[in-house]
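Lecture notes, unit on protein representations.

Consider one protein chain, 237 amino acids long.
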Amino acid sequence: MNSTLVKADSRGHADLGWLNSHHSFSFGSYYDPSRTNFGTLLVLNDDTVAAGRGFGLHPHDNMEIISIPLDGALEHEDSMGHTQQLRVGDAQVMSAGTGLQHKEYNASSETPVSFLQIWITPRQQNTEPRYDQKNFEASQRVNRVQLLVSPDGKEESLSIGQDAWISRVDLSAEASIDYTAHRPENGLYIFCLEGSFEIADAVVGARDALTVTDAERLTLSSAAGAEVLILDVPMTD
C-alpha cells in the first residue's frame, strides 16, 4: 500500500467574506503544482457560504459535479429547469456534458450553509447534461459503507459518467470496517469529516485526508468515532 497523509491545515484557503473555502486541490487563486488532482478527482472544496449569499449563474461543461451539504440548506437552479433545495443528508449530481448553467446559494437568510463540492472528470466528453439528487439516511452508514455515487446507480446510488464511487461511513467509538476498492487500479482519497480514524499506522484527523494506491482492501478503525468520505476513483482518464 502506498499512502500519503494530507493535513487539513495544508489545504488551500480562500476567505471572501461571504465564502470561506478550503481547497484540497489547486482551485481559483490557490495553485500547488503537487496538488492539481488525484487521478480523475480534480476538486474537493470544503465550502461555507454566509446567510443569504451564494454563487451566481455560471457555466460548466464536461465535468461530473457532486455536492454534499453538511450543515444548512442550499438552493439550486439550473438551465435544465431544475429548482431544488439540498439539505443535510442529500447528495446532488450534475453531469455537465455539452454544457449547462446553474446557480446555488444559501437557502437561509440567517445561518451559514456548509457543503462539499466535488469535481470528477468524465469518461466521455460532450454527453447530454443530466441532474439528479437523493436523500441518504444517516442510520444506514453507521459502521457500514453507504454508497452515494457510482457508475451504474447500484444500491440506490446516484450515477455519474465515470468509473468512480463515493461512499460515506460513520464509525462508532472502537469500531472498524473493511473497504475494498471497486477496481484494483483505482486510488482512494479518504477524507475525514469529523473525529479521527486510523488506517495501518496513519492517524487521520478532522478534515485531514489519506491518499491510498496499490491497496485493494484496507481496514478503517476509530477509537472515539469518525465521519468519513471515501472517493474511489480512476488514476488515469
